[in-house]
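B., you asked whether I could sanity-check this one before it goes into the benchmark set. Here's the sequence:
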Amino acid sequence: MTDSKAAVPTPNEKKSEKRTSLPTFYRQVVAELRKVVWPTQQQLTTYFIVVLVFVLVMMAITAGLDLGFGKLMFWVFGGRDA
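And here's what the prediction gave me:
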């Protein structure tokens, strides 16, 4: 079993840590972004189409359920059915 004190710094240990300067932070961000595997144009187009189709299907399901439950409520409670 590992020592939990080493994994989570106490509040006193956090205070002794020095803040990262802005230029250092920027360099670290740029270094991390260079490690990212960016999608190709074809992958991006495929992902966009998949997401678009999914959203359209979910909109259709939601609209259908809304219409169906609305008509059901008008039928149950005897309101005017438009």
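One thing to flag: The mean pLDDT is 86. Otherwise nothing jumped out at me.
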